[in-house]
Amino acid sequence: MIGNDGLTAAVVKETDLALNAHGLIKIRVLGDDRQTREVIFQALANQLKAAPIQHIGKLLVLWRPQPEKAKKIDEDRKPGPREFKVLKYSSRGGQRPEMKRVKVLGNQRLAAGGQIKRAKPKQKSVKKSAQG
Questions:
Q1: What is the sign of the dihedral through the CA atoms of 33, 36, 42 and 48?
Q2: What CATH number belongs to 9-63?
Q3: Domain ranges across the chain
Q4: 6 vs 17, higher pLDDT
Q5: Is the four-CA dihedral 57, 58, 63, 64 of positive or negative sign?
């Protein structure tokens, strides 16, 4: 929202942040003068290198493609062994359950009953392999 002070540095900065975050934004201008709103609209579009989409009444719509977000890749972090606690209940009802610590590696999974199973490779469809 742009108040009666008009286009200030703070307004430009917030508009730039909103365009980076969302790409398409609507801006409401409180002033009644249409010429002033049109000047603000063009000034914002030029300063921020955005496309002026629409100007209806006191509402301005700007668009700018969002920048690609850089993904941090840490080579040292890889899925390592995970440790789980497994409770094994006794077949006789009165005894306490036995607690066992199990280490599961990256290519394994923990099945029901505390058993460790290797992860199976994903099966390919017969139809898809015949097509390609």
A1: negative
A2: 3.30.110.60
A3: 9-63, 77-116
A4: 17
A5: positive
Instruction: Convert the pLDDT of each residue in 101-110 to its tens digit.
Output: 888 887 788 8
Name which of 50, 51, 41 is nearest 16 in CA terms. 50
Three state DSSP letters for 93-116: CCCCCEEEEEEECCCEEECHHHCE
Q: Would you say how long the chain is, in residues?
A: 132
Tokens of residue 11, six digits: 């307004």
Q: pLDDT digit string (tens) for 54-91?
A: 999 999 999 999 888 777 776 666 667 888 888 887 77
Indicate the helix (H) or strand (E) that contains 62: strand 59-63
Spatial separation of the C-alpha atoms in residues 33 and 73, rounded to whole Å:
51
103 vs 86: CA distance, rounded Å: 10
Predicted confidence at residue 44, as pLDDT, reads 93
Q: Residue 37 in 3-state DSSP?
A: helix
Residue type, 63: W
